[in-house]
Amino acid sequence: MNIQQKINTLREELRKHNHNYYVLDQPTISDYEFDMQLKELQELEAQHPEFHDPNSPSLRVGGAITKNFETITHEYRMYSLDNSYSKEDLEDWEKRIQKILGNVDLEFVCELKYDGASINLTYENGKLVKGVTRGDGFQGDNVINNIKTIKSIPLILKGDYPEKFDIRGEIILPLDGFAKMNEERVVAGEEAYMNPRNTASGSLKLQDSAEVAKRPLDCLLYNLVGDKVKIESHYKSLEKAREWGFKVPAEAKLCISVGEVMEYVNYWDIHRHDLPYETDGVVVKVNNRAQQQELGYTAKAPRWAMAYKFKAEQAVTKLNKITYQVGRTGAITPVANLEPVLLAGTTVKRASLHNADQIQKLDIRENDTVFVEKGGEIIPKIVGVNFEKRPDDSLSTVYIDKCPECDTDLIRKEGEAQHYCPNYNDCPPQITGRIQHFISRKAMDIDGLGGETVELLFKEGLIQNYADLYVLKKEQIIPLERMAEKSADNLINGIEASKKIPFERVLYALGIRFVGETVAKKLAREYKNISALKSASFSELILVDEIGDKIAESLIDFFGSEENLKIVERLRSYGLQFEVSAEKLLNQTDKLKGVIFVVSGVFEKLSRNELKKKIEDNGGKVASSISSKTNYVVAGSNMGPSKKEKAEKLGIPIIDEDQFLLML
Length: 664
Ligand code: AMP
Ligand code: ZN
What we know:
Distance between the termini: 46 Å
Bound molecules: adenosine monophosphate, zinc ion
CATH superfamily of the largest domain: DNA ligase/mRNA capping enzyme
CATH topology of the largest domain: D-amino Acid Aminotransferase, Chain A, domain 1
CATH architecture of the largest domain: 2-Layer Sandwich
Number of strands: 20
């Protein structure tokens, strides 16, 4: 077998395994074997760029950056759907149809209404060529680079597909993937995403496809469009789409009467909560495609399809008690503890009350009868009080003024909604929260240590702060619950390995308020080591680009504490990185200090990321769009025409890669 054949075979194999895993949910090899094959392909492709293929399974990890998505007019308009809420609504719809078609035999296809962002995929000769968002229905954005990272979407089809067609579906975030993403965010001190639908549609518009690749997005298909699709019924077209490699949920069902449609609706109204994704209703479609054509469209929706919306999920229950939770930063969240009630298929016992203002606004009190709703959000919320049922001896809620965990007086800063516990050093949830942030992926990324273990280690008195992690002994860990020789080894090795994590991430890991990843990078670059940063004054700090009063104040606070200084000193003595590495320093200059660049197009010598890194390493700044503040536009081939026009209008010099390199 020659190299090209070898590459093709590997691509074919990996495509098949992707399909087995992501579409059929029936993997036939282990993840490890898959990774090995993928690695082999990647190596061969790197050695033989002449066999590059934009549809190679190796490119599923993303990497392409799209600054401005191309607007594309849909060849076939993407309509909305009319809504129905009862059997009568559906019967009326059937009558309207029969009036147009003249009392014919009707079949319906019922599908679930997937709750995500709709997408129109275009295939030519079996290859994915476009992926366009719905937009306003007439035109949308081509998000193809992001679409290609979604592994259940085939890049290359198999079987007897038409030479050119569009297929429509919904990009969704399955619930477990969504929950996992949020867990990671919370550990990293970031705010959780509100609901899977908005997160899915937001993901499609990310500029960095590698970021999209990390999100567990999925795509469920429901409609074939195009003149070249010669299939007589919708149901058959779904079966065909499955054969070609698409993920078409098996729940789709053929029905021969409105009565049968209602059975489907009633069944899924209950069982939808067992599905791995969210659905807010059923879509009923006329099966025969010739009949569909005859029925046509109203100004807004097809006459041949109808959505059936499930009822809003609300429950009534009693609020037993209001309790308060303390987060890593000391922020207090009030929680409603409810009389358990069934809502959206799960038993709800707690709901978030957000903050003191919210409680006051809705006048929520203990012992009230309240309305609980589960919208798209994972955490249910209280939307109102049934005042008629309020007991006579009801007392209005007095918000706590002391920390429920450590009894310290709470504070509330001017202009902030949240109350805080200021007991930074001794408030237990703040201590464990900080350690959990310290070990999180974007910080010290300690393998083998999770949030629960941190709580356990704290409870057992083995750690009081993150510096204590570095003196943990294997013998101390093994006796703990659910720990074994191997997991203890992993933990110790993970901690040891974290000593190599670069300074900027250590700085982020310290959990200084308002010092996120980007700010940490800025500070590391500017001050180069912890001693310099520690001794910087407020007035010096705010001179640094993008460091404002809030951040400067927080840094002064942090390094003003004896306790923090001691911990940092200990970390340093254990060998963590508290200065920028010599190698990195060598590549850093101030040659481009204060110079603002916009990067556009594709380059030959450097990748876009390398180019951006060069700018930043030399003190320059990369902006995402051209403004009067921009100093240079570095343009490769394929620079967007609108960018070019804008740069010319503002008189901003456009330079190429070589000219840029000369500046260094
Ligand atoms: P609406 O936006 O409420 O008018 O509903 C129309 C949208 O429902 C379409 O744009 C699709 O994105 C979405 N949808 C979800 N599941 C289906 C399905 N099975 N068939 C058709 N449309 C669906
Ligand atoms: Zn406290």
